[in-house]
Amino acid sequence: MLPRLKIDYVSDIACPWCAIGLAGLVEAASRLQGVIEVELQFQPFELNRNMPPEGVNMGEHLVALTGASAAQIDDERRNLTAIAAEAGLAFKLDRETRIWNSFDAHRLVYWAEQAGDPLLLKTALFRANFCDGRQISNHEVLTEIAVECGLDGARAREILSTETYLDDVDERMKLWMNRGIRGVPAIIF
Question: What is the 3-state secondary structure (H, E, C) of the chain?
Fold first, then answer.
């Protein structure tokens, strides 16, 4: 029997650094295969709890948040895209890229813990958001992604059209905030 390592990965699906961090963590875990058993559990976190479902322009949001110039944001976007490429992710970030509300996507990942493969869904959501430019706050898009990951589309629609897992996900977010998490990704071993 292999020793077991539990990892809580606290992240936001709207965070590009979280996508890059997960790619690196998955790569590291694959190198330990046969040496240690890794148990990965995803923990939700929203960097922008009040983000509207229609999202906001990423560059404009970052300019307002950080005070950086548009040129600095362009440089950061290029840097982020290059780092993502090193992690095997083909980010497509440009001046039209939007940041979406991620809460409903977190509810689907929570469901996938019981119904399917949460890693498959989480990586598909990151890819949809940062590589494909899909609106991860849109219920139809989220349902399509769930189905692409082998999850039941009718159940995904039902979850998204009700308050299913709303309190569960909110409680998990509060738990990690109460433990001092203020930025993501955070990896707890």
Answer: CCCEEEEEEEECCCCHHHHHHHHHHHHHHHHCCCCCEEEEEEEECCCCCCCCCCCEEHHHHHHHHHCCCHHHHHHHHHHHHHHHHHCCCCCCCCCCCEECCCHHHHHHHHHHHHHCCHHHHHHHHHHHHHCCCCCCCCHHHHHHHHHHCCCCHHHHHHHHHCCCCHHHHHHHHHHHHHCCCCCCCEEEC
Q: What is the mean pLDDT of the chain?
A: 96
CB 100 within 8 A of CB 145: no
In this predicted structure, what is the pLDDT of residue 53?
A: 87
Using CA atoms, how far residue 68 sits from 65, 74, 83, in Å, is 8, 10, 20
Please give the Cα distance from 70 to 58 (Å, whole number).
Answer: 11
pLDDT one-digit tens code per residue, 46-87:
999 899 989 999 999 999 999 999 999 999 999 999 999 999
Task: Report the C-alpha gap between 69 and 150 in whole angstroms.
Answer: 42
Tell me the mean pLDDT in the region 102-116.
96
